[in-house]
Amino acid sequence: MEELMSINVLSSDKAPAAIGPYSQATQVGNTVYVSGQLPIDAQTGTMPPSIAAQTTQSLQNIAAILKEAGMTMQNVVQATVLLSDINDFSAMNEVYGKFFQAPYPARMAYQVACLPKNAKVEIAVIAAEK
Fold first, then answer.
1. Is residue 17, in this structure, part of any structural domain at all?
2. Which one of 3, 89, 111, 130 is most buried, counting C-beta atoms within 10 A?
3. Where, if anywhere, are coiled coils annotated (predicted)?
4. H/E/C letters for each residue in 21-43?
5. Contact yes or no for 37/61 (Cβ under 8 A)
């Protein structure tokens, strides 16, 4: 009989709680799948106004969740960035680059019609032990 894979649910009180029926992150083996993180400050429940500050907050939320698995941003192998306005790409990219160093994760970024809570950015990542 096949053994079912074990899925660990990860969460951090330093990142905002899920606003729907999903986990902040799940871990299967050595791989962590972090759900899209809105730029919500877990302590205040607020979002900063600028795209730069929102990108920073989303990435800080991701870092807090990865820490629960004993990982850092250097474990990120793939990222998906959703923007409410593609014209914010350069400002987002400038902040994003401060959170990673070579070898950089694979990434896609694109504009969407609208993000939850009218956020300017939402970022999801996949991380793995290297």
1. yes
2. 89
3. none
4. CCCCEEEECCEEEEEEECCCCCC
5. yes
Give the span between the Cα atoms of 52 and 109, in whole angstroms.
15
The reply to whether 1 falls in a domain is no
Question: Does any domain span residue 34?
Answer: yes
Query: Exposure string (b/e) for 64-81, b if CB count within 10 Å is 16 or more?
Result: bbbebbebebebbbebeb
Structural domain count of the chain: 1
Classify residue 93: in a domain, yes or no. yes
Residues 49, 22, 101, 30, Cα dihedral to 10°: 170
What is the bridge-based pairing of β-strands 106-111 and 76-83?
parallel
Domain boundaries, position 100: 7-128
